[in-house]
Amino acid sequence: MTAGPNRPIYLDCHATTPVDPRVLAAMRPWWEENFANPGSVEHAMGRAAEEAVEQARALIAELIGAEAREIVLTSGATEANNLAIKGAARFAASQGSERRRIVTVATEHKCVLESVKALADEGFEPVILPVDGNGLLDLGALRAAVDGRTLLVSVMAVNNEIGVIQDLAAIGTIAKEAGALFHTDAAQAAGRIPLDVEEIRADLLSLSGHKVYGPKGIGALYVRRRPRVRLAPLFSGGGQERGLRSGTLPAPLVVGFGEACRIAAIEGMLDAGRIAGQRDRFLEALRAAVPGVAMNAPDAPRVAGNASIALPGGVSAQAIMAAAPMLCVSTGSACSSAEVEPSHVLKAIGLDESRARATLRIGIGRFTSPADVDQAAAMLGRAWGAAVSGTGRAAE
């Protein structure tokens, strides 16, 4: 969103991204001209919708180096994560497997952590590993935790708050050496860093449409075909998506997701270079406006658009946001930001409560302009100055 008089500046691209106009154009005919159910293959409109869905599935698969038939369409990454973790565990249990350990990381998205913890009630053993001050998993600790009892290792590719990139290839290798499945939540990684399911040895990988400039309400789970990964479905229905995810497919959303993945495959790395420049410009301007501002997890590899920043002076991030209402940033995950307690991610990397409460998550994206980042830094500077001086609301 371009900055302008009385228009908000959007720097929250980890929460969601704007729909690319090209994606919107691709979706529109499937609402207005051919609204058929892609399962209605008895007639021409239904067959056309089915073909469009399958073309989109192929584009989603291509982004991660998979086969189209390995893509299971879902409502989003939360559902994909639940299906991967609970589905793998329940299928293994139904086959009498003695592997009961599920290993994950303290900084995972809440839907992963809660899925893993919920399986304890079904006789599984959750193991939640810590991270270092840069949010990175210690591979030695992972190797010690993964053994012949381990069914599944689930590690997020890119953290949704601090933007750090885990060493997926090394993690996948450790899981494979122990005979365990490897799942990664790649919602924040797709289109931002190169992803290849063969290179990282993933068995299961979750994606989300609205993190790659596509629509909300659509996602996907990659499920390896060779060697075949078997899952138990989460709910019953008409047997769509190879019986793993029943329900009518929303053809416009699927088409939009496919188009977003097509664009990301072509332009993602070009985007990353431009976005990194915008982030650096923003940080330079912010450091001039707010002396002492610090980056969280400063030494970790991170995606181009992320900046997790801690403001000095004992001022809470909530107060800063209230003082700059036309600036759209966040204090952490959109799924956790309503909570009173500081983010579990910031706690996990060792931030004390004061610094955690002073942290803002900045997410710069494809459509962020130089004017946006300049104005955002100035707005934060004014808001911070007003807060530390006790004058209250900053002028816009």
UniProtKB/TrEMBL annotation:
Q: Does the keyword Transcription regulation apply?
A: no
Q: Which cofactor does it need?
A: pyridoxal 5'-phosphate
What keywords tag this UniProt record? 2Fe-2S, Iron, Iron-sulfur, Metal-binding, Pyridoxal phosphate, Transferase
Task: Determine if Iron-sulfur is one of this entry's keywords.
Answer: yes
- One Gene Ontology molecular-function label: metal ion binding
Start and end residues of each Aminotransferase class V domain: 9-375
Q: So what does this thing catalyse? A: (sulfur carrier)-H + L-cysteine = (sulfur carrier)-SH + L-alanine
Q: What is its EC number?
A: 2.8.1.7
For this protein, the record's InterPro entries field holds: Aminotrans_V_dom, Cysteine_dSase, PyrdxlP-dep_Trfase, PyrdxlP-dep_Trfase_major, PyrdxlP-dep_Trfase_small
The cross-references to Pfam families, in alphabetical order and at most eight, read: Aminotran_5 (PF00266)
Against PANTHER family, the record matches this protein to:
CYSTEINE DESULFURASE, CYSTEINE DESULFURYLASE FAMILY MEMBER
Biological role stated in the UniProt entry: Catalyzes the removal of elemental sulfur atoms from cysteine to produce alanine. Seems to participate in the biosynthesis of the nitrogenase metalloclusters by providing the inorganic sulfur required for the Fe-S core formation.
Family under the similarity heading? Belongs to the class-V pyridoxal-phosphate-dependent aminotransferase family. NifS/IscS subfamily.
Would you tell me the protein name for this molecule? Cysteine desulfurase
Origin species, per record, is Neoroseomonas alkaliterrae
